[in-house]
Amino acid sequence: MAGGGAVDVMRLSCALPPSAAIAEYARHAEQLGYHRLWVFESPGLHTDLWIALAQAAAATERIGLGAGVAVAGLRHPMVTASAAASVAELAPGRLTVAFGTGHTARRVLGQRPVRVTDLVDEVRQVRSLLASQVVDIDGKACQMRQLPGFGPVRPIEVPVWLAASGPRAIAAARDLEVPGVLVTGTPDRPWHECALLRFGTVLRPGEDHTTPRVIDAAGPGWASIVHAIWERSPDAVDDIPGGHRWRDDLETRRPPGQRHLDVHQGHLTTLTDRDHELVTAAGPALLTPGWTGTPEQLRDRATHAAASGVTEIVYAPAGGDITAELSAYAKALTTADS
């Protein structure tokens, strides 16, 4: 693939939260040729992942559907396996389930992400349940026992991936021999399938970091980085432009045991008033993380990603016009220069 040309050697997918508009967005993504629609899981911030996937399945015919990611520890493994079976029955051959430790979804509940060892256990359990095997869960034998008409015929062929952004999760993905991984950075090694999650927006002529549309579309990604920094070390946020004011507002509104209820609101989707001030203070740095740029710049980044082993770009659009963001990204990454 030549720099600046059409990106035709890897797949372009998208990632969205559950919402009332998920069926509409799924249809639009399918019409634009997106390979797959990944749906977030964060019950404290959005509605149910599996209901959203079922709605998207009913509204589309071809686009792949992904749980991206299903968070370990939120449900009994049988509940997750049954939900996956339900979506697989609605959309045969289209479902992929990726599991993660819940760096946002669990922190919104005031909980730490699950240990990677527990994540591995749940992945093994769900895979075995879908394969119609008897599985030991909490010391008791479990097996999918739905009679005909009450569930799809087993074994149920659903690829199970891992979100593998840290060294422990990467090692787990190797041990589990998963067919694919979701990553947020450069992959450490070749994978059969490697999907790179990116936020950002396509810059139109004359736009920059001060453009309201760019702030709304790229801002949630910038804010999510600050949210993660606050989780690790609240004081470190003060070193970010606008960070001291942001942290002061957050920490004066809630007692310490309740601050996690507010910090991640709008994660990768929408700017709260507090986050809007933070993003505005970022200045040109707003355009640095994620993939925000001209179509030519985005195609060059995709070229480098493909060379590093990425097989699928997963674009997480944000802002007030998701269909327009999806359209612009698809055009930028699949249209060659004239």
Describe the structure.
- The chain folds into 2 domains: 233 residues, Luciferase-like domain (TIM Barrel, Alpha-Beta Barrel); 76 residues.
- The two termini are 15 Å apart.
- The chain has 11 helices and 10 strands.
Offer a concise description of the structure.
This protein is of the alpha/beta class. The protein is 39% helix and 15% strand. A hairpin with a 2-residue loop joins β5 and β6.
Our Rg estimate from Cα atoms comes to 20 Å
In which order are the strands of the major sheet placed?
1-2-3-4-7-8-9-10
Which range does the strand content fall in? 5-15%
Summed up, the domain count is: 2
By helix and strand content, what is the structural category? alpha/beta
Percent helix, as a range, is: 25-40%
- Overall residue-averaged pLDDT value: 94
- CATH topology group of the largest domain: TIM Barrel
Which stretches of 5+ consecutive residues score pLDDT under 50? 1-8
Q: Specify the number of helices.
A: 11
Helices and strands, in order, run as EHEHEHEHEEEHEEHHHHHEH
Q: What's the shape?
A: globular
The total strand number stands at 10
Give the class-level CATH name of the largest domain: Alpha Beta
Write a concise keyword list for the protein shown above.
338 residues; alpha/beta; TIM Barrel; 2 domains; eight-stranded parallel β-barrel; two-stranded antiparallel sheet; 11 helices; 10 strands; globular; disordered N terminus
